[in-house]
Write a structure and sequence with these properties.
alpha+beta; Alpha-Beta Plaits; four-stranded antiparallel sheet; three-stranded antiparallel sheet
């Protein structure tokens, strides 16, 4: 067999393999995304205190959290929408000495409170009320959409339409005719929010009246699908 003939045979085998693969069908993936407005905010804040005595540190934090809860309740937050997220007490060690013995210098105590509210417009006011009552830590604010079923259905529809469009383009480019759907499967679905923008005023005393500004994030809901199409002869 000559070298030229061998190349022709190899090319023919590859072509037949490609046709066979196409004859088996065409598998494509599609994705859809829908943005929804958040209607629930979660605020994580609390108190961190240092003292030489462990009991003193703990009591200071306890008094502050009691005051924060009272201030938030007065501001309009339901007690059922507040819960303790974490409590920590840990020592501070002095390692400056030459001895291998660890020396305790004092204790840090902290208590983190989580507040869940549907009153999006007053998130900044709640943060201000907590800090005015003695809170000194703000771990973050997150927003969430409580009902994303309609948004997910819309994203799923968009994903199917995208997969169908891609399949049509690929079939046309390959010179084959697209047939019906042989199999369709739902892929990963998810939702996530854009970063939340907030700032607490720490400027000069004349600006002390400015409250915490919070801009709620919007949540993106996504869906993916995998569709297998048949190809007509």
């Amino acid at each position: 067999m000559t070298k030229k003939l061998l190349c022709v045979v190899v090319a023919l085998i590859l072509a037949l393999g490609a046709v066979g693969a196409l004859a088996e069908g065409l598998t494509v993936q599609g994705a859809g995304y829908v943005t929804v407005k958040a209607d629930t905010a979660t605020i994580s804040l609390g108190m961190r205190q240092y003292a030489k005595d462990v009991k003193e540190a703990q009591q200071a934090v306890n008094r502050c959290i009691d005051a924060v809860i009272a201030a938030l309740t007065e501001a309009g937050v339901d007690k059922e929408d507040m819960y303790t997220d974490s409590i920590y007490i840990y020592p501070e060690y002095d390692y400056s000495g030459s001895s291998d013995v660890e020396k305790i210098m004092g204790y840090y105590a902290s208590n983190s409170l989580t507040v869940v509210t549907s009153d999006i417009d007053n998130v900044g006011a709640y943060i201000d009320a907590a800090f005015e009552a003695g809170a000194n830590t703000l771990d973050g604010v997150s927003f969430n959409a409580s009902d994303t079923r309609d948004a997910y259905d819309e994203a799923l529809t968009m994903a199917i339409e995208e997969a169908t469009r891609k399949a049509a383009v690929m079939a046309k480019a390959a010179g084959v005719e697209l047939g019906g759907i042989e199999r369709i499967s739902e892929g990963e679905n998810y939702g996530y929010s854009a970063p939340v923008m907030y700032s607490r005023n720490t400027m000069a005393e004349e600006d002390a009246g400015a409250g915490t500004q919070v801009i709620a994030a919007r949540q993106q809901v996504g869906a993916t699908v995998t569709i297998e199409f048949e190809l007509k002869d």
